[in-house]
Specification:
The chain has 13 helices and 11 strands. The chain is an alpha/beta fold and 321 residues long. The protein has a 6-stranded mixed β-sheet, sandwiched between helices. This is Tripartite-type tricarboxylate transporter receptor subunit TctC. InterPro entries: BUG (IPR005064), Bug_dom1 (IPR042100). Keywords: Receptor, Signal.
Length: 321
């Protein structure tokens, strides 16, 4: 190589590090949008996960709550963000599997406009009643509802939310009826339960943990076929004599036009976070279970959930507000 070639090559020798720095991902804070108010099940589970993801990726990961319309406001916003991987959406069965069952004419489509990044958790929901309700277990509560039809209220995160449809599914199996009172999120519904404005809720245990430990609510049963390892004293719904159960989930999605390598980087980041023993313990404390699955598997689950919940919405004639 002659002197001229060496001089021309010298600047290029310094390029790889600069190029890598310019092309690094993520290179600025990541926003994770949640379609419910702070204090709801997805929010409670999501915040510690995002703290660990921030530590792993080396950039801030900020949770942003955009509540309303079962997460539809937040998901519509997601269709307008840059598909560069710096804005993600964390949802649950209500957002990712149920919303199209209830709102068939949305300005977005979860399967057309978004792509799965990772499933994070899959967990049971618990059936909870207020501390002043005169029942000590699910069998007594079911008998009370049958003896006094329409005398009690059920509070949910909104019409068509996961807790609402979980309730509708359980109500049909148990042969009972209540007046549904929708709120703008699980947190506000919990305030109503503690105030006695509603008598029952269904949701992630993490939402009710503080109130349960303080004796302000009664956790009657859990929705899984077997008891939760961190909640061994809470019986399953099936143990109480009703053949019913559901498994909720939380997952991360991104705009469909995200670059595959960025989607993979995020998927790998969440895989790392959810594999940590302390994360498993923390999720157990919320009454949830770590159940990581790659983005492609989350895509399949969203499609299957959408189909099954659409059938229930039509059978129950549930109408959006």
């Amino acid at each position: 190589m002659n002197r001229r070639s060496l001089l021309l090559a010298a600047p290029a020798l310094a390029l790889p590090a600069t190029t890598r720095a310019q092309g690094a991902f993520p290179d600025r804070p990541i926003r994770v949008i949640i379609g419910y108010p702070a204090g709801g099940g997805t929010d409670v589970v999501g915040r510690p996960i995002m703290t660990r993801l921030s530590e792993h990726l080396g950039v801030p990961v900020v949770v942003e709550n955009r509540a309303g319309a079962n997460g539809n406001i937040a998901m519509e916003h997601m269709t307008r963000v840059e598909p560069d991987g710096h804005t993600l959406f964390m949802g649950d069965a209500g957002n990712l599997g149920i919303t199209h069952a209830l709102y068939p004419s949305l300005p977005f489509d979860t399967q057309r406009d978004f792509v799965g990044v990772a499933q994070l958790t899959a967990g049971p929901v618990v059936l909870v009643i207020g501390g002043g309700v005169p029942a000590q277990n699910l069998a007594e509560w079911t008998a009370l509802l049958k003896s006094r039809p329409e005398a009690f209220n059920f509070g949910s995160a909104g019409v068509g939310s996961g807790p609402h449809l979980f309730y509708e599914s359980w109500r049909r199996a148990a042969g009972v009826s209540m007046t549904h009172v929708p709120y703008r999120g699980t947190g506000p519904a919990l305030v109503g339960l503690l105030a006695g404005d509603v008598h029952m809720m269904i949701g992630n245990y993490g939402v009710f943990r503080g109130a349960h430990e303080a004796g302000r609510v009664k956790v009657l049963a859990i929705s899984t076929p077997t008891r939760h390892p961190n909640l061994p004293d809470i019986p399953t719904v099936r143990e109480a004599g009703t053949d019913w159960g559901v498994i909720g989930f939380n997952g991360i999605i991104a705009p469909r036009r995200i670059a595959p390598e960025r989607r993979q980087r995020l998927e790998d980041g969440f895989r790392h976070v959810m594999s940590q023993p302390e994360m498993r313990e923390q999720m157990h404390g919320f009454g949830s279970l770590v159940d990581f699955a790659p983005g492609a598997e989350l895509d399949r689950r969203m499609a299957a959930e959408r189909e099954s919940w659409t059938r229930l919405v039509r059978e129950a004639n549930i109408q959006p507000e």
